[in-house]
């Protein structure tokens, strides 16, 4: 039988309305993530929190040691839940994440968090490349409006495009309600 873990990616203060890099829909996504966390905790399954800090104090957000780089109160880790500090988009790069998962015999990951187009996308692709089966809870993830070559792309379209790309060849997709259904 497969053994799963929940990976809570970068649900940190700077992504919320009073932070340095607010995301569209982040409050609702964090509420959904909190529901998924509660399910994993109730089942006694592993919950791993990822916390991003840039290495430079002049970073646009997630500056080292800042309040903005701390986990948001909606999803704070319990004392028995590891928090992996990362400095790159890929949560596996130069971190202990893989060792933690190996220590617990994990082969399936459920991913929630921020940003859909960056770190959620990055960990999902890396995890699949490393042999994990991955499910992304799409409504427990958030992103922001982007611009490319003069074209403004609303957050909802950014999110949909990246979820569609992951669903095409990398991950299963689920809503929170469907994932939590008995």
From TrEMBL:
Originating organism: Aquipseudomonas ullengensis
Transmembrane segments: none
Residue intervals of the Isochorismatase-like domain: 5-147
GO MF terms, alphabetically ordered: hydrolase activity
Record lineage: Bacteria, Pseudomonadati, Pseudomonadota, Gammaproteobacteria, Pseudomonadales
Name assigned to this protein: Cysteine hydrolase
Keywords in alphabetical order: Hydrolase
Cited Pfam families: Isochorismatase
Entry annotated with the keyword Hydrolase: yes
